[in-house]
Design goal:
Mean pLDDT of chain A: 96
Main location (chains A, B): cytoplasm
Low-confidence stretches of chain A: none
Radius of gyration of chain A: 20 Å
Bound molecules: 3-isopropylmalic acid
Catalytic activity (chains A, B): (2R,3S)-3-isopropylmalate + NAD(+) = 4-methyl-2-oxopentanoate + CO2 + NADH
Number of helices of chain A: 12
Function (chains A, B): Catalyzes the oxidation of 3-carboxy-2-hydroxy-4-methylpentanoate (3-isopropylmalate) to 3-carboxy-4-methyl-2-oxopentanoate. The product decarboxylates to 4-methyl-2 oxopentanoate.
CATH topology of the largest domain in chain A: Isopropylmalate Dehydrogenase
Organism (chains A, B): Neobacillus bataviensis
Oligomer: homodimer
CATH architecture of the largest domain in chain A: 3-Layer(aba) Sandwich
Distance between the termini of chain A: 18 Å
Subunit structure (chains A, B): Homodimer.
């Protein structure tokens, strides 16, 4: 298989962990006889510094021609005081919209060796394994008007969805549930929002098409509670953009291993952008100690979702688990025993396993 | 002191616990030589059944003439399939708006004897004591347009605030922080929403007026994480309506005692509506086993915030703590030792202490 991949290192530890993903993908290519070509572009703060914009046209053009995109992370204190069109995260929002990456998938699964670092009691969190399917290109993030009014004495943002936009993400949620344990939780605020009422209608309409999936509706406030009190009750959660933003970040800390969590943002044809859930971690950037696992697992998601290379994805996931099982770990993981290693060594261990 | 209080029992266990609050207030009146008069009205499902609307005019009128309002809880499966204007929670949203109850205060403090029931590890949650100040009459809850478009093929909701609305709730947040540990966390999504940018500006402007308060800005997704990983870092959180809805429910399960949490919803002149955080609990309604503590503690908040009766409020709070310390508890509290009692006996114990 021949694939062309755009690498967007971004800022902070993004620049370090992106190399780990590349090394791992090259090992996979060799082992399974694929040909992956790579091309690197700037996004976020790095792009602001070099081009005066967080998302240069050259980056968008390259991504549009790629089979998939890997992104490190964006942001850092250097750009925190910039006006909003010159902030690193604008690059992220822009590329999601430019590529129409409407479906954000965030799997959250506890690693046994890491559960002790969870803020939750082990008996509450053990066994949790959920996937958040978040709508990523609509809702309050992109609705218009979003503006000051009345001489700056008032302000509005707009939560807007077309029925089609809701349908395609709800379909994605059902399909994901079919491939997993067949349980879908649709999260909305249908007791208040008109958009949530339409959302709930769409879910009800689609039910018949997926008779093998058990569907449940949950209000977003109740979902925020149940994620903590009973995380194991969830399989797939599907929800709109802002609710998904909040709930997926909430869920990401449950298992005590945010440094291990990958994510995928997909277009309808399967092209996708893959990035770790963690941020650019400016405090540890440049020190060679960042955990590359989330980035590497994001590359595995790319193989699975964009290239349909399920075996290859599995090999990467097994490699990460096995290296962890052997006691190797990066500093972020709060493991007392075993051996603490840096980004390069961790990557090499994973590559060697492959 | 002479005060007139409207009681809105609502539905489910609301009907039971409201009597507990009344008993406790009568004991306080006797003990401290106050005169509290009471008047009961319907809201929610009970009002739908009796008047065909979740919020009859007679209820609104009575509340407008009261010095304060106590509300039990609204909702239940009986009305779950109703069209949205005939759902119990419309009554709640309606009375908040009709009385201009813009500031919702939810204190969350762990009870030592109950921390074992927390989903969090005791070392994570111990010592947490926070207050969420939620804007309650603006934002996505009441913004217009909120409607279907394009022949039902699209939908919008509107997040709208006037600068004045933001200013008054931010002031409330600062004032609350002054009365507590002097730390305010303002939660927004300023990297995406225009309304959040205005929110952040207002907070920055107000800072100078409250030099004794340390302010921090936090994005809502980060707040959802930190509430779990580090709840003790918070003192007062101030945020807009929907973020406050989600975060306050999330926070309510941290300490393992949602049956103990009161809330206040205030108007600028101090008139307020007080209700437990828990819902109408249809599964245990009518059995006489509901925990009246959250309702009774809501009455204590009424004495403090609407009547400025701080001593009396403290007596109620001490009474609840002391009865709990003596080993008495209702069934919801997951306590193995001590003696399990019902609503009436629990109330009587608290009244006797007073
Ligand atoms: C950086 C920010 C705009 C972004 C979002 O809110 O979508 C981030 O929080 C995320 O979840 O990927
Ligand atoms: C019932 C519902 C409309 C209400 C809200 O969202 O405000 C409730 O969740 C609350 O927090 O009091």
């Amino acid at each position: 298989m021949k694939k062309h991949i755009v690498l967007l290192p971004g800022d902070g530890i993004g620049k370090e962990v992106i190399n780990s993903a590349k090394d791992v993908l090259q090992a996979i290519a060799e082992e399974f006889n694929h040909s992956f070509s790579f091309e690197t572009h700037e996004i976020g703060g790095a792009a602001i510094d070099q081009y005066g914009t967080p998302l240069p046209d050259s980056t968008v053009d390259a991504c549009k021609q790629a089979d998939a995109v890997l992104l490190g992370a964006v942001g850092g204190p250097k750009w925190d005081q910039n006006p909003s069109h010159l902030r690193p995260e604008r690059g992220l929002l822009g590329i999601r919209k430019a590529l129409d990456l409407y479906a954000n998938l965030r799997p959250i699964k506890g690693f046994k060796n890491l559960l002790h670092a969870s803020p939750l009691k082990e008996e509450v969190v053990a066994g949790s394994d959920l996937l958040i399917v978040r709508e990523l290109t609509g809702g309050l993030y992109f609705g218009t008007p979003s503006e000051r009014r009345d001489n700056g004495n008032a302000v509005v943002d707009t939560l807007s969805y077309t029925r089609k936009e809701i349908e395609r993400i709800v379909d994605k949620g059902f399909q994901a549930a079919q491939q997993r344990s067949g349980h879908l939780t649709s999260v909305d605020k249908a007791n208040v929002l008109e958009s949530s009422k339409m959302w709930r209608e769409v879910v009800e309409e689609k039910k018949a098409q997926y008779p093998d999936v058990v569907v449940e509706h949950l209000l977003v406030d109740a979902a925020a509670m149940k994620l903590i009190t009973n995380p194991t009750q969830f399989d797939v959660i599907v929800t709109e953009n802002l609710f998904g933003d909040i709930l997926s970040d909430e869920a990401s800390v449950l298992t005590g291993s945010i440094g291990m969590l990958p994510s995928a943002s997909l277009r309808e044809d399967g092209v996708g952008l893959y990035e770790p859930v963690h941020g650019s971690a400016p405090d540890i950037a440049g020190k060679g100690i960042a955990n590359p696992a989330a980035m590497i697992l994001s590359a595995a998601m790319m193989l699975r979702y964009s290239f349909d290379l399920n075996n290859e994805a599995k090999v990467i996931e097994d490699a990460v688990q096995s290296v962890l099982d052997s006691g190797f770990h990066t500093g972020d993981l709060q493991i007392a025993e075993g051996r603490q290693v840096g980004t390069t060594e961790m990557t090499k261990l994973i590559v060697d396993y492959i």
